[in-house]
Design brief:
Elements lengths: L4 E5 L3 H13 L3 E5 L2 H10 L4 E5 L7 H11 L5 E5 L4 H10 L4 E3 L8
Parallel strand pairs: 1-2, 1-3, 3-4, 4-5
Length: about 110
């Protein structure tokens, strides 16, 4: 795990900070961004071991982002996460994510 490059896309600043810290503590090198649009620029600049994206993002949502990421790199590993448990969304995400969906109802109140 040490040194693996992870891109985290999360629009909520507290969640982004919290998840980023957890990944860093696990040994990942983490780059964060708050939007799908900004992440596309980063993906075009370098390769990532893993991309983790929230599904509910402003502008391009996480599922549409995963579709775009797969066009750039069909082998890209993507994990889509959400606090919403919408079965249609989960089924859509499974088509483009790296067969992992994490649905969490946890809210970060302090970091």
């Amino acid at each position: 795990i040490a040194g693996k490059q992870v891109l985290l896309i999360e629009d909520d600043p507290l969640q982004r900070k919290y998840i980023g810290r957890l990944l860093e503590q696990a040994g990942f090198q983490v780059t964060t961004t708050e939007s799908a649009e900004a992440s596309l620029d980063l993906v075009r600049q370098r390769q990532w071991e893993l991309i983790i994206s929230d599904v509910l993002l402003p502008g391009i949502n996480g599922i549409d982002l995963a579709k775009l990421l797969k066009q750039i790199n069909p082998r890209q590993k993507i994990i889509i996460v959400s606090g919403e448990a919408d079965m249609d969304m989960v089924l859509d995400a499974l088509e483009y994510a790296h067969t992992q969906i994490s649905v969490s109802t946890t809210t970060v109140s302090t970091v």
